[in-house]
User: What shape does this take?
Amino acid sequence: MSSEELSKSYEPTEVEARWSKKWLDDGLFRADPHSKKPPFSIVLPPPNVTGSLHLGHALTATIQDILTRWKRMSGFNVLWLPGTDHAGIATQMVVERELMKTEKKSRHDLGREEFLKRVWAWKQQYGERIGQQHRLLGASLDWSRERFTMDAGVSEAVKEVFIRLHKEGLIYRANRLINWDPVLRTALSDLEVDNEETNGSLWSIAYPVEGSTEKLVVATTRPETMLGDTAVAVHPDDERYKHLIGKNVVLPLVNRKIPIIADKELVDPKFGTGVVKVTPAHDHNDYATGIRHDLPMINIFTETAFVNENGGPYQGLERFAARKKVLEDLTALELLVEEKPHKLPLAKSQRSGVPVEPRLSRQWYVKVKPLAERALKAVADGRTKFVPDQWTATFNRWLENITDWCVSRQLWWGHQIPAWFPVGADSTVDFENSTPFVGREPPAEGQWVQDPDVLDTWFSSALWPFSTLGWPDASSPDLKTWYPNSVMETGHDIIFFWVARMMMMGLHFMDDVPFRTVYLHAMVRDEKGEKMSKTKGNVIDPLDIIQGAPPERLPASIKNKYPKGLEPMGADALRFTLAALTQQGRDIKLSIDRIGGYKAFCNKLWNATRFGMMNLGDFQDDGRVFIKERALSLSDRWILSRLDRAVRETGDALERYAFSDATSTLYQFIWGEFCDWYIELSKGALYGDDDAAKTSTRATFVFCLDRVLRLLHPFAPFITEEIWQKLPMARTVNSIAIAEFPKPDDRLRDEVAEATMAPVITAIEGIRTVRGESNLSPALRIEALVQSDESMVRETLETYRRYVLPLAGLSKLTVERLGTKPPQAAAEIRHQMEIYVPLAGLVDLAEERERLKKEIGKSEAESAQIQKKFENPNYATRAPPDVVEKDKARLAELASRVGKLNDNLKRIAPVEVRVAPPASGPVNLVEELKAELSEMTVPAGEPDQQVREALDKLREGTKEGLSSQDHRDLGVAYMNMGLVDDAVREFNAAKEEDEPAKKKAPAAPKKTAPKKAAPKKTAPKKAVAKKPAPKKKPAPKKPAAAKKKPVAKKPTAKKKR
RNA sequence: GGGCGGAUAGCUCAGCGGUAGAGCGUCGCCCUUACACGGCGAGGGUCGCAGGUUCGAAACCUGCUCCGCCUACCA
Assistant: This one.
């Protein structure tokens, strides 16, 4: 790691290309079914073979790759199996559209065989793209096992399943009302229909009652379907129409007699006119009614939704044209009573977007009830778990109300149904009424043709967890090793389409659940929260983010924000972002800026490595000496201990599928602790000439970086591999991808080191705060004084001044007991220490006063808040003692803090000072200060009466009897005369006078909350008096123990992103 | 209509009974020899509204208001 030069910033593109190729060449991700390791398997949800990956796929790949790499590194025999889906309707549509565009031909012009050739060619051409995208994302898939849903093996599984289900009576053929897409000319399952609220109309049409002048007025949203009406229904209890039940109406326009029936399920007497026209062949409700009442069913549309021969004079009209004509004709007959606006749910085909036309048709169905029951039970028994578990309820509800699954599609691209129809004597085939034979091959006797229909794409997808592993060959080693899959990870949008169906098929054919855990992720949306879709133009190709893209390649919305295009972000940054945005049950809003932030994080890591390369010299870790056996410095011990926490937290987070917790732990550790603190602290040793210290620091650096890279590897595989390969250390494997995932190691934990570092960090931060607040240039070396009555703090700061000096930018550090304060110094009161930075000549003291006042205000506010709790007598008695203790301690700390801040404020009071009036009680410094500010007119150099008297006393040698107030007054006087040292001495003396009093009854609470009623103050006062006692001393670890704040009180947890 | 999720700092979100947090953005000082894709510091919130439970509620309960998503046969 010494000689090589690293580029100044991380350039992902070249690195990623190199490693994705290398991993592939080395076959690192090839799974071995005969391995002795415990198995772990995931099958990739197969994307549409002719599509290209979008960010949703990138999220899928990222999460699965994180799990996969983590498990692989943790000693599992991992299989992550890739594949693609033939995506029947979608693919067929794309190819048809292309055919029409380039050759002006329909698929019918080509014929089935030729058309399918074209689809396969298309698949060959575009199928590669998805593989390529996955490789560039870093997905550690076993490409040797890649499957396609129309591969021979998978097709064999599909046939087997169909035939067996048929034999078991779970697949049957029936003539029912189905959802028909008149553009694609195929049946659809319920799930492939989207209900969309639409603004339509509700028309009222008068139907004349036969043999009467009465008319029944029906309400409808689809008047054209009246051509197929076979009844009119009223509610049996509706007094308005009771007398008409059993009579007929004459259907206008077609003059067909149809009965008036009573049906309480269909009819809600309160809606519309309370009369419903019944069109069983074109409406799902009417269909059910038709069955109940044994009504005739008249189909009035062709496959393409044009009126057929049953529509009389309307034959040949498209359905919406027919509606218009029907309405016109009704108007002419004066039978159209009313048209009013009406919102209705319109069922549209998910694929073509066209309103679905319910159509009577003979189709194949799967009887799912029995299958669903097993799936429900498996989940109830905990054999499969949902993460997040809120999906369990969704899953259950759907399966509990499931209806039979229409699996036949009138398409060409897909698994042709293994059913055969006899060819009649006249060479025709009666697909409607003849009985098909189900089997791989037709019977030897007679002439048969195969059912032209294909199966729903999801039918083959449902078998994916086992069809990809060699089923139906039960002896397949892959199947034995990796079924059930460990995890199914996919988007929650296909829980019904896919997850539920895999559960049913897996249980039925493998007699075990297909996967133990289902992790469902959210949908990826754009930064405004809108769904990414081609029509909205906000779809981003993951590769454009990874490799960068010129503006013209970007969708308009992105181009607007990034007119210069996108810089290459790298796959690692994209992956880390996606993982960080993962949160349970919520959509993911992806922002490019956020990715940029994680790109910066990669760059940070890169540069930390660069720093190492420049400073590790010829160090080489041969791995023979355990790190803790070296002579480690405090910072070494500290970072190792922090590292162990990060290891623990990352592992825990992964166990819980809490990917975002893992990313924030890693981010925080790498940037906030390793880079911001450890590297800075290590510079002393690395730049110095103590060879032993140098070596231990180098060893620690390499040790930490190695662990942290391995921890990070599942999230950011490329940069971690690149860097890991450069570390000067012995390796047992040649890729980080198969190195061991770090495990917690108690030997690294060092509570003493963390506790010792705490005051060092506190001091550095305190001094930095003063610098920052005072706008001191970072280049300026300043002096600082730290006072503490804790000997441990003093000793630590003395011992580790070599840490404090450079990190706080000091030229001099003085450490002492609480005592004399420097004049004109900024003060910062921190836990167990007071920090003073003389500012004379450096900065305007007025600003420092403002700052102190603000600090005081804050502390007082917090103090008041806590005191309020004590005002409630129940608080002390009923709240847990530890909570009360904590509040008391905090109150004491605040009180002392306020006192100290006030002291300092006083000390750097303006030269033109108004001396406090004589006061019998405790001094209210805040009030006093306010007064000072408003009366800044007292001329300098002329101490008032009080001071003069005090000075007189002094001159008379009666100093002995001076009160603390006297000392203060004297101090002010000396200040006014420019005798700083004398002033300080007096202030100090004032303080000492105060001390004994404080120990009995602290003055601080009185100062901070003088308005409080006396009785209420008693409780906290006692507490305060007790608290600063020795008891607290051995607890400098408090800051380190705070879980979220790893370093100290307010450590480095302010990192970017 | 039913179900689920959400409403916390300008933005995106953690927190889910005991001192309001992070990242981004903002402001200030800095090109300090790993990193300006950087360093250091700071400001910023009556936790959607109204009740209730509790010593104590952003968190638990009830109701309401918005915003998403799923699901459903009001013609």
User: Anything to note?
Assistant: The longest helix of chain A spans residues 659-687. The CA atoms of residues 447 and 621 of chain A lie 78 Å apart. Chain A has a mean pLDDT of 83.
